Amino acid sequence: MHIKLSPQRRDDSLTVSKQGDTLTINGTAYGFTGVTEGATLPASATGCEYITGDIERLSGVLQLTLLLPHGVNPSQAACFPAPLINPADGLLELPA
Amino acid sequence: MPSIIQAGNAASTGLVTTGATDGILELRSGTAEGGTVAMTVDAAQNLTGATAGRLFGRSNILGTVSQTAGVPTGAIIERGSNANGEFVRFADGTQVCTFTATTNASTAAGEGLPLNHVPSAAFISQPAAYASASFYAGSNQSGVSLYGLTYSSNDINFSALNYGSGPAGVHPGFTTGTTTALSHRVFRIWIGRWF
Question: Chain A contacts of B86, Cβ < 8 Å?
Fold first, then answer.
């Protein structure tokens, strides 16, 4: 799974854990097994406000973009976040 | 009973005392000079320690804006930036986000290109107004495009239509050309409310 992070000044926060093709975002699970090779799922179809852009599977790898909330005085890592490339299952380490 | 007293007059039960240093006014909590210093104003009128939202000076007009039920509880203006551009928030709820980017994508003349973008700060709802000051397509960024704008779940969705790279200076003639454009430069401005 490749997760791009799109930073945004917001007053809320994000907790994401991954299990296979399923992401649990702030307590709600979203499964992406149905996104097959070459298929595209628009973010609006998920109903999750933290998923933005299209969800795709390219060369077998799921690709999606998550909003990364940050507050005031964020770190450089949070302002210009690096993508998460094939993160391990479990709680994702997001820059704050 | 709050009062202004002089340094050394520890017997006073005032809220306000002068500080130990000449020319500095201190506001203290408590009943005498030993109370916690809440705020100071020095001879140059520099204000320090004032809780944002109570008294404002140069030191605290910029900072984090916040509000409770529409009543400001923080600074007056907040500015920041991240990978999605710059933003400025005002205490009255106004928010402006800007971003300039060139998207490289091959689109034939007459084809559309979706350009979705997340603003650098969250809006409470659909921004009241969008302006895209300039929107060019074409490898020389002189081609003319039409665009549409929609908003959904934080995304601003653009659609650029490549009319081909017309001769430079042909604006706003919507001339359909045959050249394949390679880049779309978009200057994005959102104006809306953060609460």
Answer: none
Q: Hey, is A79 helix, strand or coil?
A: helix
Q: What angle do CA A50, A53, A56 make, to 5 degrees?
A: 110
B53-105 confidence digits (pLDDT tens): 567 878 788 989 999 998 888 889 999 999 989 999 999 999 998 887 766 55
| 3-class DSSP state of A24 | strand
Residue A55, chain B, CB below 8 Å: the answer is no
CA-to-CA distance for B139 and B184, rounded, in angstroms? 8
With a threshold of 0.90, tell me whether the complex ipTM lies above it. Answer: no
Per the prediction, chain B carries an average pLDDT of 64
Neighbours of B117 (CB within 10 A): 22
For residue A47, give the DSSP letter. T
Distance CA B147, CA B108 (A): 15
User: Is residue A95 very low, low, confident or very high in pLDDT (cuts 50, 70, 90)?
Assistant: very high
Measured between beta carbons, the chain B residues lying within 8 angstroms of A69 are 122
Q: How far from the centroid of its chain's Cα atoms is residue A83's Cα? A: 9
Q: What pLDDT is recorded for position A70?
A: 93
Q: What is the reported pLDDT for B143?
A: 44
Q: How many angstroms separate the CA of residue A64 from the nearest CA in chain B?
A: 14
**Distance, CA of B171 to CA of B87 (rounded, Å):** 30
CB contact under 8 A, A72 and B78: yes
What is the model's pTM? Answer: 0.68
Nearest beta carbon to residue A9 from set B87, B116, B152: B87
User: Cis omega before residue A95 (within 30°)?
Assistant: no
Token pair, residue B45, equals: 């009128």
Evaluate whether B79 touches B65 at the Cβ level (below 8 Å).
no
B152–A44 CB contact, under 8 Å: yes
For residue A11, what is the nearest residue in chain B, using CA coordinates? Answer: B122
